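Lab notebook page, bench 4
Experiment: in silico fold of construct C2
Operator: M.H.
Input chain length: 171 residues
Purpose: comparison with the prior construct
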Amino acid sequence: MRWNEAEIEARLAAMAERVAAEYGEAPPALVGIQSGGAWVAEALNARLATAAPLGSLDVSFYRDDFDTRGLKRTVKPSDLPFEVDGAHLLLVDDVLMTGRTIRAAMNELFDYGRPASIRLAVLFDIGHRELPIRPDICGETLALPPHQRVELRGPAPLVAEVIEIPVKADE
């Protein structure tokens, strides 16, 4: 299963309409999770009638599996060029799977201040939940088996495809 640039565009347009319907002319600050979520946040922001404040998070140090996964080679600093304390935030990610990345992002956001609200927008929701986290705005919901994931490629053009994750022999 693949999504070309036009298919991703259609999902982003629908997500932008939902943001406009829920927030009107005053969109919340968008916070994209590096890297795919930051790409989606930027693309979503470009489709809003009124551009929102835009920031990004790299949650590498906030993950609960940091000690087993280690640090990614490309850690970028988080960039929140607006006041988090008291702000309405729309956290944006490319794919929602277990919910652990979202939990890490929320933990990091609270280190910057106490937001008035945090809502979640994702391009794809594939299930596999381990934490009680769900998107408020979603481009597409999929029911994928545990050995499949959605991989977003970008930043421009944004395209995506379902990929197979090799199963370890001892599992």
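Observations: DSSP finds four helices and eight strands in the chain. Strands lie at 2-3, 29-33, 54-57, 88-96, 117-125, 137-141, 148-153, 159-164.
Next step: discuss at group meeting.
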